[in-house]
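Re: [help] complex structure
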Amino acid sequence: GQNIDQPTEMTATEGAIVQINCTYQTSGFNGLFWYQQHAGEAPTFLSYNVLDGLEEKGRFSSFLSRSKGYSYLLLKELQMKDSASYICAVSPGSQGNLIFGKGTKLSVKP
Amino acid sequence: GAGVSQSPSNKVTEKGKDVELRCDPISGHTALYWYRQSLGQGLEFLIYFQGNSAPDKSGLPSDRFSAERTGGSVSTLTIQRTQQEDSAVYLCASSLVRGARATQYFGPGTRLLVL
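Output below.
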């Protein structure tokens, strides 16, 4: 079966660092995406990992370990506007359709 | 440039009625996807179009659901004889090319409520 797990909710303080974990078990693997979704809005692309290691993009970094079926999204210097759901998604095949986790709702407190 | 657009933004219908949801992908994007997001659930893949190839319908939950993509651009998702469990946000996404590594860009979604 196909399964993606991530925590349901997390809370962090403005200015801090938070790590959102994602584990996956899929029939195949052609990459892992992280999306950000503010309430009532469409998901927006944050990052893509297909090789092991850390990809850094500004305040956001994403890590992948294919052997462990594990990824994390690291958010630094948190801002209030970072309060959103963060969704982990895996591309299991070559076509491009994605399997999504249920998302982690991050609340950033002052 | 313009992003993915969807219409209507909200739709309330009565059980048993048919509904049509529209998606305009980003110009030039060859791949188009439909997803469904139910309350408290992750996005669920429904159907995928790529160019003139036969669509991948493997995610459609029942034969009441169908979709078309005309001229390789606009797509319509049709739900016949709607049921209350069809209530969800229906999201459309497009990508420039096909394939696992292509970034998908999402529209704002259509919020469907079946009474």
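Chain B is about 0% helix and 45% strand.
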